[in-house]
Amino acid sequence: MGWGGSENYGLFRFDLMRSRGNRKNLEIDLHQVHLFDIDVPGKITFKESEILSPGDQFTMFKTPHCTVGVGICYDIRFAEMAQIYANKGCHLLLYPGAFNMTTGPKHWELLQRGRALDNQVYVATASPARDTGAGYVAWGHSCVVDPWGEVIAATDEKESVIYADIDLEKQEEMRKMIPLKQQKRHDLYHSPSMNVDKDRRGDLYQVNS
């Protein structure tokens, strides 16, 4: 999975391996839905909203092997987005992202495992390698997590390539063992108090599953 972006526009290119020796390139237009505006005193202050405009739709695509949902970086912090993708039949969630040296060590892997475990899906992330001379230093540590919440492939902060199998039979077995989808209490979840936080995209979360 390769990725790149520019101000107010995101064009992301995914290299999909259809079968051994047969590669298909897929280009999709994709905007980050939740913008990275944070202020950690003494650590980091960053305001993506000063240079970027948020996206207003979720992005999914199908491969010959599975259905994929895509978010960008900060989107991984929002459980509603991942849940909608899972409800729509996504087996794999992709998050290209660049967590920093403050949030990366604490949250990067934890969030990936949480999104995978909550929704019983595979989660894969692609981070830039760490460049300590850059103005914004990325944590690195690209990763793949299975629906059981286990890390099945990972790299360190250096430039590298990782591989992992997306096993849909294993995913279905996990969903049968712990049938979360059938056990959800939708009769209780639609509270009037939900989605009032200004940082959350309640305008996008009410999507039929």
Automatic annotation (TrEMBL):
Molecular function via GO: omega-amidase activity
Superkingdom in the source lineage: Eukaryota
Domain CN hydrolase: from-to ranges: 1-168
Region feature Disordered, mapped onto this chain: 181-209
Pfam families tied to this protein: CN_hydrolase (PF00795)
GO cellular component: mitochondrion
EC number: 3.5.1.3
Name of the top EC class for this enzyme: hydrolase
Known catalytic reactions: 2-oxosuccinamate + H2O = oxaloacetate + NH4(+); 2-oxoglutaramate + H2O = 2-oxoglutarate + NH4(+)
The protein, known as: omega-amidase
Gene source species: Elysia marginata
